[in-house]
Amino acid sequence: MLNNVNLIISINVRRFLVMCVLLFNAQPVFAKVYLSADTFVEQVVQLTNEPIHFKSNTLWLNQAIQSEIKTILDHPYAKLRLRYKISQSQQSPTTIWFLDEIGKERPISFAVAVKNQQIIQIKVLEFRESRGYEIHIPAFSQQFDNIGVDENGKLNKNIDGITGATMSVNAMKKISRVALLLHEIVVKK
Amino acid sequence: MKTKAIALAVAGILSTPNLYAAEPSNQELLDILKKQQSQIEALQEQLKKTDEKVKESDQKIESSVTAIEENLGTSSTKMPSIGGYGELHYNNIEDSESIDFHRFVLFFGHEFTDSIRFFSELELEHSLAGDGKPGEVELEQAYIEMDLSDTSKLKAGLFLVPVGILNETHEPPTFYGVERNPVEKNIIPATWWEAGAGFNTQLNDGLSLDLAIHSGLSVPTDGSKSFLIRSGRQKVASADADSLAYTARIKYTAVPGLELAASYQVQSDVTQGAFGADANLITAHAAYNSGHFGLRALYASWSIDGLEAEAVGRDTQEGFYVEPSYRINESFGLFARYNAWDNNAGDSDETEKRQTNIGLNYWPHEDVVFKLDVENRTGAQDGSGFNLGVGYQF
Q1: Rounded Cα–Cα distance for residues A154 and A149 (Å)
Q2: Interchain contact, A28 vs B149, CB within 8 Å
Q3: Using CA atoms, how far apart are residues B121 and B368, in angstroms rounded to an integer?
């Protein structure tokens, strides 16, 4: 009887070890990619419910723009230029921005669509932090819909946070403000 | 008169035989055309070369910009990362005054690949460590984390046990009150780290599961601190690993502002072989923020088997707290917290301790906080006073 128990334990231990070896031999390179940039653009087209044709533009981040970005992020944006999309509409163009910001340690990739100084949609494209993935959940990101900035440049609506993910939430709030700022700059051009 | 004069002049010129003689022949015209053609071709060639140079310059600029951008901020993620937090406390309870740089913490992390990373937390408590000094240097986290899929990850090393609200997230700007709440401190007991392996998976958006197998507690078996949970932390310092522990946590965060979580832990022997006292910990908490209002509530309970724990009334140790708060604006927030806990809940004596804190947090920056709270202790402890603190994270 005791021998049988030992045998069963021995087999289970071997199975466990084999599983561990397989697990650690795997070569996982899994980025948490929630959405592609192209899909985001398609979503914005559907969302605005009008035949929008976007063209790609480049905005060079000169000293004046970096200075304004710094007041929001507490640091300059780590790029020399930004590629963005802008709709052909002359009256009130829609712009789409692809921006990264670090939450606690790793950059989070966002896509933001802006029209009439309000956010149409913000989505997390890629999330690399250990905590705070919940910011990609629509119930959270939809809080930013139709949000703008007040006279102090702060978001004009309250965003309910996520316990234990303050820095990821803050990153999303800051990127929203940066997108609204950049939209204003290119629309006024 | 003027028109007539011009007409006569034109007629005179056209009738001049010398002018006809200067007119180029067909051959001369052909030569002129050929010459012009070769000039056009030379210009076209020059234009082509200029275009190529422009393209080449564009490519060089593109390469330079890309190279520069790759070395800027967010792109340089392969560099080791550094962070940290700290807090200075002034406590004045029943005329007992003390000032203490309670925690000075540095984080070091490194990304080996996109899916394998290292994280660590090194802490100096109470400013000064060494023989006869009040503080300690502690390694609170040091683990390797590996993504297994886009929803699952594994970690191995020394990590914070997935229990309670503050145990894993305790940077000063993230919570109200100068001192951490006494329930999580004395019952859970936060901050609590062990060595082992942990698995985390997202079952669904906003629903996650943690499983961990790790080193266990080793409580004193005699004296005034016998079977006191907080005194059982071995801190992975040449720790006794005779009896391991197993922790499971389920967490729900699908609704903005809401976190619901429950943990269950089995300790195979909290005396590490002395008495064979297995133990279970159950914790559950809710944290909710909506608009200006916030609410945190937590319950934790230990159940320890064995006559030895029962004899000192520590076979049951439990506590709870409730903390409503109101965020006035981005800079100011008010809170009140009622705590009740009992590390001798297994006996019939009135040993429950109660504590109420009411206070204010001021954030001049989202990562910097100044705190003030008044404290009133009742039940099996007395005293009242106030606490002041300043904290930061980066």
Answers
A1: 5
A2: yes
A3: 19
Question: How high is the pLDDT of residue B230?
Answer: 97
pLDDT reading at A29 higher than 80? no
CB B313: neighbour CB atoms within 10 A?
18
Measured between alpha carbons, how far is B374 from B376 in angstroms, rounded to an integer?
A: 7
Q: Are B369 and B173 in contact (CB under 8 A)?
A: yes
Asked whether the beta carbons of A129 and A106 are under 8 A apart, the reply is yes
pTM (2 decimals)?
0.80
The three-point CA angle A97-A101-A102 to 5° equals: 165
Strands (E), chain B: 81-93, 96-111, 116-125, 136-147, 152-160, 193-204, 207-215, 244-252, 258-267, 279-290, 293-304, 316-327, 332-342, 353-365, 368-379, 383-393
Q: Which of B266, B222, B218 is nearest to B242 (CA)?
A: B218
DSSP B259-292: EEEEEEEEES-TTTTSS---EEEEEEEEEEEETT
Residues 6 or more apart whose CB falls under 8 angstroms from that of B312 comprise: B226, B227, B344, B346, B347
d(CA B164, CA B185): 10
pLDDT tens digits along A103-147: 888 889 999 999 999 999 999 999 988 888 999 999 999 999 999
Q: Which residues of A169-182 are buried (b: 16+ CB within 10 A; e: fewer)?
A: bbbbbbbbbbbbbb
d(CA B228, CA B213): 22
Rounded alpha-carbon distances, angstroms, from residue A127 to A72, A177, B114, B150: 21, 19, 11, 10
Report the alpha-carbon distance of residue A186 to residue A184 in Å, rounded: 6
Bridge pairing between strands B332-342 and B293-304: unpaired
Residues of B engaging A, defined by a Cβ cutoff of 8 Å: 65, 68-69, 72-75, 77, 81, 83, 109, 111, 113-115, 117, 119, 145-150, 154, 165, 168-169, 173-174, 202, 205-206, 253-257, 259, 287, 289-292, 330, 366
Q: How far apart are CA A96 and CA B55, in angstroms?
A: 28
Statement: residue A16 has pLDDT above 50: no
Chain B residue whose CA is closest to A28: B148
Q: What secondary structure does DSSP assign to B208-253, as a single string?
A: EEEEEEEE-----SSSTTTT-GGGG--TTSS---SSEEEEEEEEE-
The token pair at A170 is: 């803050």
User: Mean pLDDT over residues B3-13, rounded?
Assistant: 54
d(CA A67, CA B327) in angstroms, rounded, equals: 30
The pair of three-digit structure tokens given for residue B264, joined into one six-digit string: 């269950």
Give the separation between CA B278 and CA B187, rounded to whole angstroms.
16
Interface test with A, best of B205, B207, B285, B329 (most A CBs within 10 A): B205
